[in-house]
Write a structure and sequence with these properties.
single chain; about 280 residues; alpha/beta; Rossmann fold
Amino acid sequence: MNGELGEISTLLFEKYGIDVFRYDDSFLEMSISKRVSATNCSSLKEYHTKLKDNRNEADSFVHSLNISFSEFFRNPLTYAYIEQMVLPLLIEKKERENNKEIRIWSAACASGQEAYSIAMLWDEVSDAAKETITCRIFATDCNPEEIIAAQKGVYTATSLYKVSLHRVHAYFSQQNDTYLINPRLKKQVQFFAFNLLDEQLISPQESIYGDFDIILCCNLLFYYKPEYRRRILEKLTRNLVSGAYLITGETEREIVQKSNYQEVFVNSAIFKIGSRK
């Protein structure tokens, strides 16, 4: 990290105690460029000067780094595999082991779309299978505001464009221009604030002991430098039981493959921990 980018990062850390060194340089450059434009600064140098005496702008910049965009059924191929292969295989595995619980962690859940998408799939798959297996879904994000929004489960009509009409009718109720997750589905998901880079905690305290059969960590890794990607992946690995699945975003497949994970289904972004070299 050199030049003005390094100077801005050093300023944020030394004056305000804000550490942005963990983020990927290209992501930081893009974020700073947006703030330069938003504050009507003519250059990085002018923006650097502005930051020196403006704690509010420092906070605004840090807030801009909290990428929380999410969608229901964001990668249709991935969710198709989860529905048709992963969940049925896990049900069979649990039956063989006489283990009656599947544990799932949405590890960067934003405002809850990912976790609720999984809850819909589980509701449909488990109902069709008519097995006695239960499922606990934990969903975490480092931003408490996103957790509050996820717990409310209120979404706009445009955010449901990848949700089938059948699922909209089954799992949402319309209230004016918004759609509310129905109470039965809400009970399926537990939301908590948790920072994946917390050095003290291995897993969300509310999950008690980790041991997840599926962990979803989608569209997060590429925002960080390789060292921090490694730390996050190591933490996730420690939380997976043998034969469990790690699911990432499409653009992160190469990152995970370089960490000796093997993709279970072609182009699915679904990896199996039991296949690690």
